Amino acid sequence: MSEDSKQLISLRNISVDFKRDGKDIAAVDDVSLDVNKGDIYGIIGYSGAGKSTLVRVMNLLQRPSKGTVTIDNQELQGLNPQELRNARKSIGMIFQHFNLMKTRTVQGNVEYPLLSQKLSKNEREGKSLELLKLVGLEEYATSYPSQLSGGQKQRVAIARALANNPKVLISDEATSALDPKTTTSILELLKKLNVELGLTIVLITHEMQVIKGICHNVAVMEEGQIIERGKVAEVFTNPQETLTNDFVETSTNVKSAIERITADPSLSTLGDNQRLIYLNFIGNASKEGLISELSQKYQLNVNILFANIDQVDGENVGYTIAIITGEEASIERAISDLQTAGVRTRLLQAKQKGE
Ligand SMILES: Nc1ncnc2c1ncn2[C@@H]1O[C@H](COP(=O)(O)OP(=O)(O)OP(=O)(O)O)[C@@H](O)[C@H]1O
């Protein structure tokens, strides 16, 4: 397969400017992004970062001020209105507030996009029931949206988005209005659609937990730009930008643990030759064993204040905050050994003799 045919979405130098109070706002600022077929690509950023605007560019619901949009080797800006309508069918979308039609039944909602296809009533009914089965809601075909829970409404919206057999599903904060358990079940459904149908998914969110749950790749957006991108496991364990680090540490509870520990004098008032240190490691939990091994080797006392282990894209990632006590040179050597073994270390606080 050539590099080109692997790409499903290709955005080149996209900028979107809006006018507000007579001033230009760069909602998206010179963004290039490639999404490969079969990928689950997450775009994360705080509110106002430009995520929704960027994904609306992917089907030209938002025309960019600059740049080109190519979907499956077809440049969208070159299409006439009829061709664009057809191209848009290959891009399904789901949203935070589901956008279902209240006066139509569940099945009626799923059938709606099929009305523009040359299908008989029977074929439409068959297809919509098949889609409802796929999302686990065939028993609710005759119910109305108001009779469903949020998670069920989102399943209906997913079935509807799949009606035209799209190549890509864009999920715009689709789990933001759902509780954590329902969020997990919707993410599991998206993962299943990705695996079983080979559906490419672009998912925008402000929660790293969502990215960690199902994405293979991630882009971090701030002020209209992509400031960092890469494989989720890599970005998670070695974030380069402050904002990325902030997302990672919030989702792993490391941020709140550091705040709690440094605000508590009984934990953060260090004695002589003590260091408060943060350790982050990927791979096997045996790195935990490494800490006790090094503490024996260098005669250090390690007091673990916080530890968390997480799964990112199938890999274990560990986070530990500890106070290490011992001779300064021994601490230095132990930290150097940890780094050699692939552990990321960060000094949070230190007190040397005589301070
Ligand atoms: N139609 C519009 N007219 C003017 N400004 C807009 C318009 N749409 C978005 N913006 C502005 O563009 C910037 C990016 O908005 P966008 O909705 O893309 O961000 P976001 O990251 O998706 O945030 P959120 O999750 O809150 O929607 C914001 O400053 C927003 O106010």
TrEMBL record:
| Domain spans labelled ABC transporter | 11-248
Q: Name one Pfam family in it.
A: NIL
Kindly list the residue ranges recorded as spanning the membrane.
Answer: none
For biological process, the GO terms are: amino acid transport
Q: GO MF annotations for this entry?
A: ATP binding; ATP hydrolysis activity
Look up the signal peptide feature and give its range.
none
SMART domains tied to this protein: AAA (SM00382), NIL (SM00930)
Q: What InterPro entries does this protein map onto?
A: AAA+_ATPase, ABC_transporter-like_ATP-bd, ABC_transporter-like_CS, ACT-like_dom_sf, MetN_ABC, MetN_ABC_transporter-like, NIL_domain, P-loop_NTPase
Question: What keywords would UniProt list here?
Answer: Amino-acid transport, ATP-binding, Cell membrane, Membrane, Nucleotide-binding, Translocase, Transport
What's the superkingdom here? Bacteria
Name it.
ATP-binding cassette domain-containing protein
CDD domains noted in UniProt: ABC_MetN_methionine_transporter (cd03258)
Which lineage?
Bacteria, Bacillati, Bacillota, Bacilli, Lactobacillales
Species of origin reads Paucilactobacillus nenjiangensis
Please verify whether the record's keywords include RNA-binding. Answer: no
Question: Which SUPFAM superfamilies does the record match to this protein?
Answer: ACT-like, P-loop containing nucleoside triphosphate hydrolases
